[in-house]
Amino acid sequence: MSQTDPIAELLTRIRNAMHARYNQVELPHSRVREAICRVLLAEGFLAGIETAGEGYKKKLILGLRYSPTREPVIRGLQRVSKPSLRRYAGAKEMPRVKGAMGMHVVSTPLGMMTDREARRRKIGGEILLRIW
Questions:
Q1: Which domain does 49 fall in, by range?
Q2: How far is CA 33 from CA 15, 80, 100, 107, in A?
Q3: Residues 10 and 55 in one domain
């Protein structure tokens, strides 16, 4: 199945699985999706990441995190840069999310990273998504 925007599909699957209170979600693997999920794991939004299968059957299995009262850790996910309208920002112009309570995931020449890390390293890039 051809996908126009695989990052938007990743966000939608995570959003739907958290709304249904699933413990994990499974989706087709890609290097971009895996890099985004690794950033979310490092920031504490996901419980774990596994890859299963080989070749074109390779899958990403994401463990979702919830609070002790079973509320999702992820309050919101939003795609910023879309295939129809790309959003770029330099290190100085990097926007903040919800008064620094959230973060942006940025694609830079040094790989995927958070907006905080991009500001610290003084590099800009494409702002892929916003999470809080």
A1: 6-64
A2: 15, 15, 24, 12
A3: yes
Predicted confidence pLDDT, tens digits, the chain (132 residues): 457 899 999 999 999 999 999 999 999 999 999 999 999 999 999 999 999 999 889 999 999 999 999 999 999 999 999 999 999 999 999 988 877 789 999 999 999 999 999 999 999 999 999 999
Q: By C-alpha distance, which of 66, 47, 53, 65 is closest to 27?
A: 53
Threshold 0.90, pTM exceeds: yes
Q: For the domain that residue 54 is a member of, what is the CATH number?
A: 3.30.1370.30
Tokens standing for residue 116: 């905080």
- The Cα 19–Cα 5 span in angstroms is 21
Using a CB cutoff of 8 Å and minimum separation of 24, what contacts does 51-56 make? 53/29
**From the CB of residue 39, how many other CB atoms can be counted at a distance below 10 Å?**
21
